[in-house]
C-alpha cells in the first residue's frame, strides 16, 4: 500500500510503515488478506492517515482485524450515526447476557469499536466537533443506562424490588455532570456521576429486607465496576464520583430529599458551577426531571447573582496555582487561554443571569455563547472569536488523546509527538500549529480577563482611590477626623453625611447580615464613598443611594454587582442624584440594577417593534403554566424600560414627546402580552367562546385605552384608563370540558387581565387600572359587547363620555374588532351637535372640575393679579392649564368633526391641533401657542414627577402661556347664555 500523504513529516513515516506492516500481518494471520478489497477504496485511502495519527486505532486493528469489516457494515465509518443508532447497536451487542463478567467484556469491546469509529471520522475530518462529542456522550449514555437496567433487574432478583413507603417501585437516577451532562465528552474523558433515588423505603420479595439506600448502593457499586474496572479488555469509562455531596466521604447514593437539603444548606459555589451541566443520563428519566426541578433554585438564583464571579475568580485562581505548581502552562484545557476559560466565561453569565433569563439555562458551551451574543451579553464579534478558539482547542485536545486513548491535554515535548499533532490538525509543521494555538489562547485569555478579572485590575475602567475611605467606614477614625475627610472630599454638610453613614451601620438590616454579606458591604462602601465624591452634589447622591444599600443589605449579591461594575455604580449615583423618583424606584425594585451595566443601552430605549418583540421573546422562554414567572417577567420588563426612559429624559437624549411615546409603547407591549396570556389561560380552562353565527372566536376582544394612554401621553406613574370590548355571543357556551356562557367567559377574561396588571408581587404591580370610563361606570358590566357599547354611546352616554372618547383607541386585541371600534368612534364623535348646547355642557363640566380640583388661584379669577408667586399654579387643573387645552380640543372635535372627519384621525392633542389648523378652524398662531403651552406644561409635570413633587408651580410662572390659553378659551368657549329649557 503506497503512502501518499503530502503533509506527512519524515519523522512519522517509520511509525506509519510499522503500523501498516502489522495490519497486513494481522490480516494474513486471520485469513482475511484475500478479502481486503471488500473494505473499499475509501477505507484504503484513509487508513494511512488514521494510522499515522493514532497508535490506539492501529493496535485495535492489529488485535482484531475483523473490526474493520464490522465498522464498514452499513458504511458506519463514512456516515454519521442516526438518532438512537448508538443505543440500538449496544442493545444488539448485549443481547443474551448471562453474567456480570460477560456484561463487562461486551461493554468494553463495544467501546473499543466505537472509539475506533469516532477517532477515524475525527482524524479524516468527516465528523465536525459537535458530532464527535455527541457520539462520545451518546456512547456513555447508552453504556451507563443499559448496564444499569441489566444490573437493576439482576439485583432485584436476588435482593428484592425497592419500593417507597407507599409501595411504589423505585429506580435510581444517574446524573451525568460536566462534559457528559453537556454532550461534550472528549475522546478520553472521565465521566462524573451522582447517584440518587426518589424516596426512602425497603425492598420487597428478597430473602431479607434492605433499605432502598442499601439496595441502590449495591447497584451503584456494581455499575461503577462494570464501567471502570480494568480487565484484559481495558475499561469502558473512568468513573469519578467525587462531585457527590461530601465527596469521597459521603454516601454513594442519596435520596432526593437528602440531596435537596444538602445543596440548599451546604452547597458551595463550585457545586453550583458543576450542577449547571447536570443531566439525567440513566435510570428513571421522569423522576430525574423532578430532581432537577428541585435543585434548580440552588443553581439559578432568581436575582442577579454577581457573587458568582467572585466564586469563579477564586476557582480560577486555585486552578492557576495548580497550573503553576504542576507546570501545566502547556495544558490546552487548564493553561492560560485554555478550554476551561471559555467555559468559565459562559458559565459566569449563566450563574449571574440564568435565574432570570431562561435562555441561559442550557448545557453546551457553544449554545451558551450563541445566546450571549443573541441577547447582547457579549458582542457578536467576541462570541465568534471565542467559538473559533474553543473549537480549535477541542480539536487539539482530541488529537492529543487520539494518539494513545490517553487522558491528556498536555502538548507534546518530543519532536515526533509535535510533528504528529501538527500533521493531525493539518499544519505543515509544529511552528505553524503553535503560532495558531498561541493566537487562539491569547484571544481567550483577553476575553476571560474582561469577564472574570478583578475590577481593581481593570485598566480600561479606572477606579477611585476607595482604600482611603476604608478607615472612615470601619470606624477607626474619630468623628473630627471623619468630618474633616468628608469636607475635604466635597461633602457640603459633612455632619449630615456622617450621621447617615452611622444610621446605616446601626440599622437592623445591616446588623443582621451574615459574615459573607458583611464582608461584601465592607468592600463596597469605600468604593461608594469614593465615587460619590465625583458627583456634582455628593451630599444628595449619598443621601439617595444609602436607602438602596440598606434595602439590599440582606441580598448582598447586588453589592457584588456594583462592586464588580464600577461603571454601573457611577450611573447609579448620577441617576439618583438627578431624581429622587428614580432613586426610590431602584430602592423598591433593585432587580433593575442590571440595566445600569450597559450605559449605551441605558440611554437608548428601543423602538416600539423592538419593545414588543423583546417582551414576546422573554415570555416564550417561560413554560406556559408558570404564571408566577410570567408576571415577574412582565414587571421586570416594565421597570427596566421605564428606568431607561427616565435615564434618557434626565440625560437629555429623549425629548418630552418621545418620553410619553415610549412610556405608552411600553404599556401597549405589556397589554398585548397580558391579553394573550389571559386568553390562553381562559381557553385552556373553558374552551373557545362562540360568535353569533356559531363560529368559534379567535381572540375577539380588545383593550381600549382612554385618557393619557389613549392619547399617547403617559407619564411616570400614570394609571391606565381602560375599557374592555368583545364581539362574541354572550349566551352561547364555550366548547371546552368546563363550558361556561360567553358573557361569563369575557367577564372572567377581563378580571384576569386586571388581576395580572394590578396584583402586587415582590416586584410590585404592573399598573393601576381605572375602569370607570366603561358604560355606566362602576355600576356597569366589566366587559361590553361591541353592540351594547355602541348602543350606550349612541343613546345614553353623557357629553363628558364623548369627550373622553376623543382620546380613546384600541391598544391590544383583534384587528377586525379594532376596525369596528374605530368606525363606531368615528360615527359617535362625528354626529351633528348643537354647538351652543355642547358649549354649555363642556364649560359646565370644566367649571365643576376647577371648583373641586383647582387651587385658590382659580377662584381668585383669571386676571394677571391672580398670577403671583404666592398662589400656586396647578399645571393640570387651573385656568389656562392642561385641562383647558384638552377641553378645547375635545369641544372642537365634537363640534366640527361632522364636517371635518380628518379631526378623528388621531387621539393625541398635538396632532389633533395640527388637523384643526390644516382644516382652517384655528389660526396657525393660536395652534402653535396651544401646542407650545401644552408641551411646556407637560414637560414641567414630568420634571416634577421625577423630583417626586406635585404638579404645581409658583403662580408667577408660565404667564404668557396661561394668558394665551385663557384668551383662546374665551374666544372658543365664552360663558354661554343659560339654557332656556333648564
Helices and strands in order:
Blueprint: H1 13-29, H2 41-53, H3 55-63, H4 66-72, H5 85-93, H6 100-123, H7 129-159, E1 161-164, E2 173-176, H8 178-181, E3 191-197, E4 201-204, H9 212-228, E5 239-240, E6 253-255, H10 256-266, H11 269-275, E7 279-283, H12 285-299, H13 307-326, H14 339-353, H15 365-374, H16 380-402, H17 415-424, H18 430-452, H19 470-474, H20 479-489, H21 494-506, H22 508-511, H23 515-532, H24 538-551, H25 557-564, H26 566-578, H27 580-588, H28 599-602, H29 608-620, H30 627-651, H31 656-686, E8 701-706, H32 707-710, E9 720-726, H33 742-758, E10 769-770, E11 783-785, H34 786-795, H35 799-806, E12 809-813, H36 815-829, H37 835-853, H38 856-860, E13 873-874, H39 882-896, H40 909-918, H41 924-946, E14 952-953, H42 959-972
Parallel strand pairs: 3-5, 3-6, 9-10, 9-11
Antiparallel strand pairs: 1-4, 2-3, 2-7, 8-9, 8-12, 13-14
Helix pairs in contact: 1-3, 2-3, 5-7, 6-7, 7-9, 10-12, 13-14, 14-15, 14-18, 15-16, 16-18, 17-18, 20-21, 21-24, 23-25, 23-26, 24-26, 24-27, 25-26, 26-27, 29-31, 30-31, 31-33, 34-36, 35-39, 37-39, 39-40, 40-41, 41-42
Domain PII-uridylyltransferase/Glutamine-synthetase adenylyltransferase: 314-451, 873-948
Family: Belongs to the GlnE family.
GO molecular function, one term: nucleotidyltransferase activity
